[in-house]
Amino acid sequence: MQALNLMLIGMGFVFSFLALLVVLTGLMSKIVMHYQPPVVASTPKLSAAQQPAGQAQNTDPQLKAAISAAIKQHRARRRS
Q: What is the mean pLDDT of the chain?
């Protein structure tokens, strides 16, 4: 009987602690959001090297040819 009593008290304590933790975390979040202004994300400008394919201005034609050849070779190896 003592083991059952101890188990129920322990489970009740853990449940109470976790419920209190959830409530306090939500309250803290509301308080922080009240005093903290919303953050506006700005998109950084990409350099020519970081731009997606098709947007780079001065791409070396030899580099394009090498990349195309490597892609063709890779696809040919995958098929066979």
A: 86
Non-local CB neighbours of 58 within 8 Å, separated by 6+ positions? 48
At residue 42 the predicted structure's pLDDT band, cuts being 50, 70 and 90, is: confident
**Cα(70)–Cα(76) distance, rounded to whole angstroms?**
10
- Residue whose tokens read 């509301």: 30
Instruction: State the Cα angle at 76 between 80 and 49, rounded to 5°.
Output: 145
Q: Output the pLDDT for position 46.
A: 63
Q: Report yes or no: 49 and 56 within 8 Å, Cβ to Cβ.
A: yes
Interatomic CA distance for residues 14 and 9, integer angstroms: 9
CA dist 47 and 31 (Å) reads 40
